[in-house]
Amino acid sequence: MSGYYPPPGAPPPGQPPYQQYPQQGYPQQQGYGQPPPGPPGQAPYQQYPPPGPPGQGYGAPPPQQGWGQPPPGQHGYGAPPPGQYNAPPPGQYGAPPPGQYGAPPPGQYGAPPPAGPPAMPSPGYDLRQRSNINVDRAADDLRAAMKGFGTDEDKLIRTLAQLGPLEIEAVKQVYKARHKRDLMKDVHGETSGYFREGLEAMIRGPLDQDCEVIYESLKGVGTKESALDDTLLARSNADIHAIKAHYQQRYRRSLESDVKGDLSMKTERMYDMVMAGRRAEESEPVIPQQVDAWVKEIYDATEGRAGTDQMTVCAVLTARSNGQIRAIAQAYQAKYHRSLEQVIRKEFSGHMENALCFIVGAAVDPAKNDADLLEDSMKGMGTKDTALVRRVVMIHWDRQRLQQCKAAYKHFYKRDLVERIKSETSGDYKKLMAVCVSLA
User: Fold this and answer.
1) Closest alpha carbon to 159 in 406, 417, 435
2) Residue ranges under compositional bias (Pro residues) (predicted)?
3) Which of 174, 297, 364, 379 has CA 20 to 30 A from 372's CA?
4) How many separate domains does the chain show?
């Protein structure tokens, strides 16, 4: 089966085909976990059966103007400017660039692939970026919600939930300049519980929140492994380097040394590979001969031998782009009739098993991966509230990602995500989580 790959846009191995509908929206900067953009006009990545009328597909915004959305052609403080964080990538979501899938670039047959241009940091991961949206009204609304006797929790939720990564940084500065107060301290003093935890996660913004999550996960006895996985796995090189630099600046200590001190030997080595930030860029081509070699490497390190060469598998999967991992997963399924995730579940255990499945899942079907993580936060006895807050806030920054996660959740779990979250939460915490998930 050498050289065989399902066509671009095919569903993940083992999944039934999804209907495809054109995605609408603005072109987006490629962020972490996102596949490389294709040429405009192609159909997007696999689509789950849409809940709406024909033409309103998975990944397409609703036809009516929704809560918190400005009129067409405008954008206020509650919406990102065109071309930033909440727009779908142009072209086929999940497909490599044209002419590079299933065939080497012209004139380069058998040659090593050229290094692709590096991705920019995701919005909110370069603190030098500035919002061009006036956030004075948002800052005033936040102060009004907490001024005087009592707190207007609904106004706090409405205002903060609408702010994008760049706008939240601007609001903190404007709030301090106009009201001579610290927004984080005011919110901390006026709220409590998981409601406070969610609001503070939003106020930190995505970069500072990632560092906070990592730092807290390493404190005390035992490492909160899922928190490390959520924040460090399947990230772009640019985001990894931004997280390392901000962590060093904030805590005056190295991220690598802190993580190493809390992990077992082989998992520590895997995270060393992750934190190096040297994955293939999403702009690099997917070349079948290389994919076949990586598939053989994984097979020889797992099913093709007695025992498992764990570090070889880690080295392959932590160094490849999402597009390359998708191709590896498809080729492995086609050649050995087992999914790559099944092989990992059989050959690995514990944190390394979960981490490698996370890497593969985030590449093969990122929307399902997000949906699975949210369900994992809520299933069984009791809700893992800190994990739910972390995951909802992380996904809410990217409205396109959120929209696809909701559709995947509906498809795989046969329930509405907002209603599911409401059933597991209460009070202002429930309102905050529901509003965050209702944004897309």
Assistant:
1) 435
2) 1-16, 34-121
3) 297
4) 4
Sign of CA dihedral 132, 394, 73, 140: negative
Average pLDDT, integer, range 416-436: 98
Q: Is the dihedral of CA 283, 231, 421, 373 positive or negative?
A: positive
Q: How far is CA 44 from CA 15, 80, 253, 277, in A?
A: 17, 22, 42, 28
Is residue 249 one of the residues assigned to a domain? yes
12 DSSP assignment:
P
| DSSP letter (8 states) at residue 24 | -
pLDDT in tens, 292-311: 999 999 999 999 999 899 99
Residue 319 lies in a domain: yes
Q: Do 341 and 408 share a structural domain?
A: no
- Of 160-164, 194-198, 260-264, 337-341, minimum mean pLDDT range: 260-264
Query: CA 374, 375, 379, 384: dihedral to nearest 10 degrees?
Result: -10
Which of 204, 231, 258 is where one domain is finished? 204
Helix (H) or strand (E) holding 354: helix 350-364
187, pLDDT greater than 90: yes
Is there a contact between 313 and 358 (Cβ–Cβ < 8 Å)? no
Q: Which of residues 223, 244, 278 is at a domain's end? A: 278
- Beta-carbon contacts of 112 under 8 Å, excluding residues fewer than 6 positions away, are none
CB-count exposure of residue 214 (10 Å: 0-12, 13-18, 19+): buried
Contact 403, 409 (CB under 8 A): no
- pLDDT above 80 (res 191): yes
Specify whether 170 is located in the same domain as 216.
no
For residue 271, count other CB atoms closer than 10 A to its CB.
25
User: Do 237 and 289 lie in a common domain?
Assistant: no
pLDDT exceeds 60 at position 379: yes
Report if residue 227 sits inside a domain: yes
Region of 121 please: left (phi>0), alpha (psi -120 to 50) or beta.
beta
Higher pLDDT among residues 22 and 407, named by residue: 407
Contacts of 423 (CB under 8 A, 6+ apart): none
pLDDT of residue 82: 40
Mean pLDDT (whole number) for 269-281: 97
Average pLDDT over every residue of 345-366: 97
Neighbours of 416 (CB within 10 A): 14
* CATH number, domain with residue 329: 1.10.220.10
Same domain, 139 and 152: yes
Say if pTM beats, i.e. exceeds, 0.70. yes
Examine the domain organization and report whether 178 and 214 are in the same domain: no
Residue 155, domain extent: 135-204
- For residue 243, tell me if it sits in a domain: yes
Name the band, by pLDDT with cuts 50, 70 and 90, for residue 216.
very high
